[in-house]
Amino acid sequence: MGKIALFGAAGAIGKSIADALRAKGESYRVVGRSRERLVEAFGSDPKAEIVTWDPADAASVRAAARGMDTLIYLVGVPYNHFELHPVTMRQTLDGAIAEGVKRIVLIGTVYPYGVPVTEKVNEEHPRNPPTYKGKMRKEQEDLLLAAHASGKIQATVLRLPDFYGPGVESSFLDGMFKAVANGKTADMVGPIDTPHEFVFVPDVGAVVLALADKPEAYGRWWNLAGAGVTTQRKMAEQAFALVGRKPKIRVIGKLGLRLIGLFQPIMKELVEMHYLQTTPVLMDDSALIGLLGDVHKTPYAEGVRLSVESYQAASAKE
């Protein structure tokens, strides 16, 4: 892989990849808009080089990519501004290509698949997103893979389902874990009994590095499924049981999201993607396992336990 840079490093997945790099004794660069967040996350690691960037500034993008061989792209945008996904990808690609970066790995999502037409979704499933957010994510991927097809850079995409883990505040289950740790009622977006899958964030980093190191991984996308099929209710029941409480859950449906969105505009953004609650994308990752061999997946019971312990520790410090 050579020299590695994590663009958009300060989030949960970036920290997981950094942990995997640290375990291998490798140096790496972390890139983000906020130096304060980067220092908080990586300032204690002598292997981490901290670099800030402005995606809208071509010189800044080039400086952030300079001297790197592999770029792992984790850049987030505000949930109500998904039009920035293809824009920021184009800006990053232009800078990376100009600096001679050899390869780029995009950490993607299930959004481009749209509504599933098969029980399990493999990489051959059509990308036909019915939502604006899905279309923007698909456009982002198309830009990346077009650059690969033109021979300008090697590119691949790793798709993740919803994720969770210790201190993962961007998780769909974050509010539930906080409620468990603080003795409160968990607000959850329903329905919560439909089949679902989650990936445990600490497992992701090693998979990303293994994929990035495979020459045959480039030029396509790959699925990473969760540790089997579960439901949100089962996850909540496991979490509440660990603290000796009966589950206290308040389910918010599509109408509820619309009503809350009148007062909290960001919440109405969840309405568009609500189909994932009723017709979830359950991924088939046999191709990835065939490529990498062993892919470690923490069982849900263990992942929930570790998450609850982490949230309890954080609550005790408050």
TrEMBL record:
Gene Ontology molecular function, alphabetical: aldehyde dehydrogenase (NAD+) activity
Pfam families per the UniProt record, alphabetical: Epimerase (PF01370)
- Residue ranges of every copy of the NAD-dependent epimerase/dehydratase domain listed in the record: 6-223
GO cellular component entries: cytoplasm
* The protein's name in its UniProt record: Epimerase
Instruction: Recall the taxonomic lineage recorded for the source organism.
Output: Bacteria, Pseudomonadati, Acidobacteriota, Terriglobia, Terriglobales
